[in-house]
Structure formats: structure tokens, C-alpha cells
Design a protein that fits this description.
The chain has helices at residues 2-11, 32-45, 62-72, 131-142, 161-167, and strands spanning 13-14, 20-21, 53-57, 76-82, 91-98, 103-110, 119-127, 146-156, 172-180, 187-188. The strands form two sheets. An eight-stranded mixed beta sheet has the order 5-6-4-3-7-8-9-10. A two-stranded antiparallel ribbon has the order 1-2. The protein is an alpha/beta fold and 195 residues long. The protein is 28% helix and 32% strand. The model has no long low-confidence stretch (mean pLDDT 94). It contains five helices and ten strands, in the order αββαβαββββαβαββ. α2 packs across α3 (62-72). Bound molecules: guanosine-5',3'-tetraphosphate. It catalyses: XMP + diphosphate = xanthine + 5-phospho-alpha-D-ribose 1-diphosphate.
Length: 195
């Protein structure tokens, strides 16, 4: 996706070989024009899939998630993160480990918002190790609903999340794929990402 690639090139800050800072358009300040295009692109890629729910995780997944949901005219649900929690009957709970933050969160979704038969598109801002996406997929499956696919704004293709999700049979659509952040440089995985 050309606009997104340009944003990454012009505004992304390579913090280390592992981490790209994109707080000027995705993780802190958010660019609504870009997010609108992101939503449109996900809907284009998953056209014909009869999606009736979009699922993401707070907080940075909400902007691309709501724009996708708006385009689909379907509700967006964002999983909430909580450190500890008294188990209750009316929520789905999954554990998600963050390698970046080296901590586990429990993520929760109210059962009333996801039902058997729902066709769910999972959206997230970053894909690294895939922990968040797997946690969201497990929640969809707990609900007896179906994961139609996983839409990612920025995939770090040098980390294993994308491969692991595809090996489990999930369709993953990443709008840009980064092959490397070595030497302070962003290298994209392939030029076909550009539209
Ligand atoms: P994973 O879910 O794919 O396994 O990723 P990981 O645990 O490594 O990532 C944890 C958090 O860090 C996630 O956000 C993820 O989006 C973010 N993240 C991972 N790699 C990068 C990166 O290179 N750059 C930036 N900017 N973020 C990255 P989160 O904790 O859920 O934060 P937020 O959604 O509340 O902003």
C-alpha cells in the first residue's frame, strides 16, 4: 500500500533492529486519512467474505479497526487488556504474552458481542510474534465463531508471527511487510506490497 509505505519511509523511526516507531500516524498521533485508506484496503482484500464483526485489541488496533468496520458497516469489538481479573461467566478470556513488553496480559471480550456463526475479521496495527493475533483468534474460536482472516497494518516479516499464523491456516493480509530494520534502515519484504 503506497501511502502507508511512504508514511513508514518518511515518518518511521528505527529504534533498534527490532522496533519501528510510528507514533506520528499510528501509535500515538493517528492519521485519519491514512486510516480511512487502510480500512478500504482491508475491505477490498477480504471482499466477498461476508464479514459481520471486526475484532481488534486496544489501543492502537482501534483506529484501523473502526475504519474497516465503518467500510463494512459492521460493528468493531476491541478486546480489553487486563493484568489480573476475577473470572466471570459473561466474558471470554485469553492470555497473551508480549515479548516486547515482557509481560502477560489477559484479554477479554464480552460473550454477548460474539456468537456462533459470526464471521470475524481480526485487525491489528503490528504483527511481530503473533501473540496478540493468536489470542484474538482463540477468543473467536471460544465463541464458536469463524476467523475469516487477519488484517495487519505493519508486519515485521523478520519475526515469526505471520508464518506461524499461516501455518495454522489463517489468512493473513499485511498492508506492508518489513524484511529488516538493520543498520537503521527500513527494508520492505517485497515491492509487490506497493499499490
Ligand atoms: P505480537 O502480539 O505480534 O506477539 O507482538 P509483541 O508482543 O511483540 O508486541 C507487543 C506490543 O508492541 C503490541 O502493542 C504491538 O503492536 C507492539 N509492537 C511490536 N513491535 C512493534 C514495533 O516494531 N513498533 C511498534 N511501534 N510497536 C510494536 P501493544 O502493547 O498492544 O500496544 P498498543 O496497541 O496499546 O499501542
Amino acid at each position: 500500500m503506497k501511502l502507508l509505505k511512504e508514511k513508514v519511509i518518511n515518518e518511521g523511526i528505527v529504534l533498534s533492529d527490532q522496533v519501528l516507531k510510528v507514533d506520528s500516524f499510528l501509535n500515538h498521533q493517528m492519521d485519519p486519512i491514512l486510516m480511512k485508506e487502510v480500512g478500504r484496503e482491508f475491505v477490498r482484500r477480504f471482499e466477498g467474505e461476508d464479514i459481520n464483526r471486526v475484532l481488534t485489541i486496544e489501543s492502537s488496533g482501534i483506529a484501523p479497526g473502526i475504519m474497516t468496520a465503518l467500510e463494512l458497516e459492521a460493528p468493531l469489538i476491541f478486546a480489553r487488556k487486563q493484568k489480573s481479573l476475577t473470572l466471570r461467566d459473561d466474558i471470554f478470556v485469553e492470555k497473551v504474552y508480549s515479548f516486547t513488553k515482557q509481560e502477560s496480559n489477559e484479554i477479554t471480550v464480552a460473550k454477548k458481542f460474539m456468537k456462533p456463526g459470526d464471521r470475524v475479521l481480526i485487525i491489528d496495527d503490528f504483527l511481530a510474534n503473533g501473540e496478540a493475533a493468536f489470542g484474538l483468534a482463540r477468543i473467536v474460536e471460544q465463541a464458536g465463531a469463524e476467523v475469516v482472516g487477519i488484517g495487519i497494518v505493519i508486519e515485521k516479516a523478520f519475526q515469526p508471527g505471520g508464518r506461524l499464523l499461516q501455518e495454522k491456516g489463517y489468512r493473513v493480509e499485511s498492508l506492508v511487510r518489513i524484511a529488516s530494520l538493520e543498520n537503521g534502515q527500513v527494508t520492505f519484504a517485497d515491492e509487490e506490497d506497493g499499490i
